[in-house]
Amino acid sequence: MAQNPGPGVGAATAVAVTHAPMEPGGAGAAIERWTLRAGATEATVLTLGATLHTVSVPDRDGVVAQVLLSPDDLGELLGAGRHYGATVGRYANRIADSKVTVDGVEHRLAPTGHGVTLHGGPDGFLHRMWSAQEVREGERAGVRLHLHSPDGDQGFPGALDVWVDYLLDPAGELSIEYRATTTKPTVVNLTNHAYVNLAGEGRGDVLGHLLTVEADDYTPADARQIPYGPYEPVAGTPFDFTTARPIGEAIGQDHPQLVAAGGYDHNWVLRPRPADGTATRAVLLADPLSGRTLEVLTTEPGVQIYTANGFEGAVSGAAGVPYGRHAGVALETQHFPDSPHHPGFPSTELRPGGEFRSVTVLRFGVS
């Protein structure tokens, strides 16, 4: 599929960074909204949950739309919409039986129900107020957010310091760069939980979006969404997006994995990433009607794709339209779910003196 920067996306222009309080955030704190602008591209980031709140980009005719599902109401940000665009951790996705063993020591984690700990526990990073400061690196500019997670937080060992940089470049490319250090051996898996609808938030479902995933295998999961057994090839299954096809083409098939999850909510095993740590393409998403495209590049070995199967209209965005089933798609670059219990999966262990690093790039354009 031919891709080009959208009208105004590729313009050589400086990146502007501003911020202002959003609403009272409790305990005397205020949620800050940081705004990054370059040409026709704009992204906003909230200090609550280190959240990527909105992204506005043009279509093939230059018409700008906001393409992330994003509640503005504080109650929804803290409630039904708490995952939307947030940084999730310490451990994104699921850990079976709410426990991990590190160096022979078992640590009981705060459970979230259904026999798992999801997204770091009931009081994970998405609920926290992060500190923020402006950062500039060459032509790129944005916001650096920091969170200190104490030893034993949600049951995880080690005091963890986490930094997340959102950096916009003059061409409108948005990078999300993660770093973390620990005082004790622990496990870490960080991701961003934005939901995308390239037609614009509140403008129908994403079943007609064309999806390409750079993966030949996926990890089938049990009823708790915990991987079991070896990787399975996507060839000949509804999970084969090695060439572009509509998200909705096979989502309703009578495949046990689709039936159990109500659609896609699975981890794809990406083709090997470069050894030098360069972020390379994991996903290409395209909306044929608007022409908007999103290329997701990452250093991570996997991507969890969730098609908002459980959405029932509990959250609305700026357009005032309740988000129903399949109103967006989450493309969560990550290590694999439940990795601490699967020695064959890429390791998520982090040790004192080491540093967790991860980069994901959102490259918007038109076709």
From TrEMBL:
SUPFAM superfamilies: Galactose mutarotase-like. It is an enzyme of class 5 (isomerase). It comes from the Bacteria. InterPro entries: Aldose_1-epimerase, Aldose_1/G6P_1-epimerase, Gal_mutarotase_sf_dom, Galactose_mutarotase-like, GH-type_carb-bd. It catalyses: alpha-D-glucose = beta-D-glucose. Pfam families: Aldose_epim. Its EC number is 5.1.3.3. Signal peptide: none annotated. Transmembrane segments: none annotated. The keyword Oxidoreductase does not apply. Keywords: Carbohydrate metabolism, Isomerase. Pathway: Carbohydrate metabolism; hexose metabolism. CDD domains: galactose_mutarotase_like (cd09019). Belongs to the aldose epimerase family. This is Aldose 1-epimerase. It comes from Kitasatospora nipponensis.
